[in-house]
Design brief:
By secondary structure, the chain is mainly alpha-helical. The chain has seven helices and two strands.
Length: 196
């Protein structure tokens, strides 16, 4: 998730101060991704350095308002118009955890997957119960429901992946593939230069 671009998109609607940007982000996303105010101000300072926002003088309450520049407006529009890609690797903690559990001697992989699958199914049930209410009427409710629907889809996909992984490992002749630690030490640093 790009905090930088999210803040630019909000500022494109009009000047805001830091706490106001945080409140607007929460309001527009159903509070799905908590951002602390320090992160907002650090991002604003980088955006200012990059010429994408400008800082106004403080008002009578001490709020410093930030305004988007033409360059910032163009970057926000380009971000909104472009698709979000999935990277080649994964930083998905669960995928990494299951892969490690499958290769670590002495780890009960079925238990690791079973515990996660039960938690995922419970989370999915809670999300679906939350979504079963009245249809959204206000813009904030619609935004929250859009994010919740994405969370439901991702949680369903996670449950399906866990079930598929559980079947794959159950049907595998070794159930897990423990790997001993490598005996060869990885090379570090640059090779030494030959002396003349």
């Amino acid at each position: 998730m790009s905090v930088r671009h999210s803040l630019l998109a909000i500022l494109d609607q009009g000047p805001c101060y830091g706490y106001q940007l945080r409140a607007e982000f929460d309001r527009r996303t159903g509070s799905a991704w908590p951002i602390n105010v320090g992160q907002i101000y650090n991002t604003l300072e980088r955006l200012e350095r990059d010429g994408l926002v400008t800082r106004d003088a403080a008002d009578e309450q001490g709020h410093v308002f930030w305004r988007i520049t033409a360059a910032g407006r163009a970057e926000a529009a380009a971000w909104l118009a472009s698709p979000v890609g999935r990277g080649g690797g994964t930083r998905d903690e669960l995928a990494v955890k299951v892969a490690l559990a499958a290769t670590l001697p002495g780890v009960d992989l079925a238990e690791v997957i079973g515990n996660q699958l039960r938690a995922t199914v419970a989370q999915l049930s809670a999300l679906e119960d939350e979504a079963a209410g009245d249809p959204p009427e206000r813009a904030e409710e619609l935004a929250a429901s859009v994010v919740r629907d994405a969370m439901i889809a991702a949680t369903r996909a996670q449950a399906e992946w866990l079930e598929r992984t559980e079947r794959r490992l159950r049907d595998h002749p070794h159930r897990a593939l423990p790997l001993a630690s490598a005996t060869e030490r990885p090379r570090r640093g640059r090779p030494a230069r030959a002396r003349a």
